[in-house]
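Table S2 (continued). Query chain:
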Amino acid sequence: MKKRNKMNCRMHSRTLCSLALAAVCAASLALTGCSASTSDAGTGGTVVRVNAAQTADTAQAASPSDTVTVTSKGSVYAVPDLAELRFGVRTQAETAAEAQSDNSSGVASVIKALKDKGVSEDNIQTTWYDVSPQYDWNTGNGDTITGYSVSTSLSVKGVAIKEAGSLISACTEAGANEFNGVSYSCSQYAAIYSEAQQKAVEASKEKASVLAAAAGRSLGPVRSITEGWQDTTYEANMKTMAAMDAGKGAGPESSAADFMPGEAEITANVTVTYELK
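Corresponding output:
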């Protein structure tokens, strides 16, 4: 009985060792990725196979292709055809109430003159209003208030360049005694900017081709395009343009002031990634 138990124990131990050996071989083959076959008579011929070529193809497909990334700018020059004018009305009086009343009257006259020239209320904006005490600095009594000053600034958008002189003359006659500057915009900004974008992409291809050739490679297809920061300085407000169109012909053009807007540079910036071949 004892001999039989010892024989059973030895057979059981051999079986466990064979199974353990097969498991170790299978794990080793999976890690190394090599094709192999192992067998053991005591386990009935366990076989483990790994396709090395298939594993290499999968790893290669997962890795990203070589790329080159460039940032470029495209520019288009255009002559602005719209202006934004900034007027001011400044009044002074002994009391704040009187100065405010005079100022309100002057601003109302200027707004009426703008409307008479065909400017819509939507294009007229109050951008500044200030009430300030005035002091006697000449006699040394700097803490003595001698009166009050009231200032109101108006912005008028979407003015056609050819009508700007007439508009300024009319506002000056109506009571505007300050002129705070002018800025320009293009009515066809969207189309001009699109052209600048196209030039930016074309420029990116030229830059990327030079880099690829320097590396002994050639340029492949585009992987990605990212638009950069857009300067909208010369972008015209479409609502403003519509309101100005509705008021065209409201008054004659004037040669009282000539505006020379010059050329505006409208730019587009892009970052493009290309594949390398």
